[in-house]
Amino acid sequence: MQRTLPALLGLSLLLASCGQPGVPTQPGQPGQPSAGAPDRTTDTTMAAPVTITPGQTYGGVIAGQPRDFDYYIFDAAAGDRLQIDVKAPAGSTLDPVVRVYLNDGWVLLEKDDDGAYNPSDNSLDAQVLFNADKTGRYAIEVTSFKLVNDPAATDDNAKNLYTVTLNRR
């Protein structure tokens, strides 16, 4: 995957400047979607990510613009064993892709459909299991598979619903 220096610097500055972890607030407040419900009133962007902590689930939608990428940030201690699940509920048109970024803006992990939930059901859901090798801030990016490898592709569909969950394992 090719990243430009300005994009990496932007993500690094984002990760470095974000506040301490918070908790979900009321629906519709900028940057804080409702826990577990599709967020149709705000967008989690690189400039305004949502803080997620282990045990939380947020709902989102990849829509509202032709190329939508949603961002969540979390802090991890060295040795933390974490699991990120991105699921498209029944009726969703989304084939989700999840990426985990290091504090310096480089991609640590990327997952598409991996059959993590049931290898025989051809699931489109994505799951990332990883151990944090150092203490710091990390970012999660959720988007549509259609947007990952084609810079000209668009996927603005109100049915692109998903949930993202961060857990310790």
UniProtKB/TrEMBL annotation:
Gene3D superfamilies: 2.60.120.380. The keyword tRNA processing does not apply. InterPro entries: Peptidase_C_arc/bac (IPR007280). It holds the Pfam family PPC. Residues 68-144 form the Peptidase C-terminal archaeal/bacterial domain. Residues 20-43 are annotated as: Disordered. The keyword Oxidoreductase does not apply. Residues 20-33 have a biased composition (Low complexity). Residues 1-22 form the signal peptide. Keywords: Signal. This is Peptidase domain protein. It comes from Deinococcus proteolyticus (strain ATCC 35074 / DSM 20540 / JCM 6276 / NBRC 101906 / NCIMB 13154 / VKM Ac-1939 / CCM 2703 / MRP).
